[in-house]
Amino acid sequence: MPEGIRLVFLPAYTPELQPAETLWVHVDEPIVNRHFQTLDDLDAVVADRCVALANDRDLIRGQAGFHWWPKRTNPI
Question: Does residue 42 sit within a domain?
Fold first, then answer.
């Protein structure tokens, strides 16, 4: 292990530390129980869903915006 690097092992499910974890159910929604002919077809559906989710800030905030996180004052 290089000096200055420390591994921190997280539990398998830690939504507070990995807020995107709570959004997977919404990403999976359009692909559950479906068969795709190619990986490109699957990729297109997942990409479209991710774009739709990125535009639904209220959903993201509700799922992953934990109240105790500091609020950004100057958005980039």
Answer: yes
What is the 3 state secondary structure string of 26-63?
HHHCCCCCCCCCCHHHHHHHHHHHHHHHHCCHHHHHHH
- Residue 32 CA: distances (Å) to CA of 7, 8, 36, 53, 65: 34, 32, 11, 17, 25
CA atoms of 48 and 63, how far apart (whole Å): 19
pTM for this entry: 0.63
Number of domains comprising the chain: 1
| Of 74 and 62, the one with more pLDDT | 62
